[in-house]
Amino acid sequence: DGGITQSPKYLFRKEGQNVTLSCEQNLNHDAMYWYRQDPGQGLRLIYYSQIVNDFQKGDIAEGYSVSREKKESFPLTVTSAQKNPTAFYLCASRPRGLANEQFFGPGTRLTVL
Amino acid sequence: GDSVTQMEGPVTLSEEAFLTINCTYTATGYPSLFWYVQYPGEGLQLLLKATKADDKGSNKGFEATYRKETTSFHLEKGSVQVSDSAVYFCALSDDTGFQKLVFGTGTRLLVSP
Prior knowledge:
A: mainly beta; B: 113 residues; mainly beta
């Protein structure tokens, strides 16, 4: 089955710890994205990547970092510099071409204790 | 910058009622427009899309028409079911190569039997 997987589904972190969220896709999509979702709000873009070894900051990149060493993988690290990391994190990918929709993974819910 | 405005929820309907969720946008250029649906605890699924003015997107009984003159993309369904209960997000994608999505805040739909 082709799709996007995110792991873990639930993640708990102590304050001051870095944590990495996994995102893998086997759709052969070029572009990948990370969004943050807070209750009652829309999705906000954290980082995105159009090709391997290249990525750009989105609207709320502070306190986050990413890497894109393989086409299939786009992990997100939430660092201790992120002041309010508790949220639902969604990864998405998109095939090349204009007007193509983004495909979303199931999400990871991160809770800081 | 680009933005999307959705009607506030929750929208509460009885089964078989008519549904309208309003969405208006502000954008430069010629964006593509999308409706996504999110069920509790899950990622987003594409419901329908439209890529140019006067296009009508449709899927599973839902419809939306890209109205450039009123900058709107309202979601409609003639007869809702309990299983349609979810959060609906309107989004636009710019017409550049980066294809970033800008989301509305989402509208929760609750359908009772």
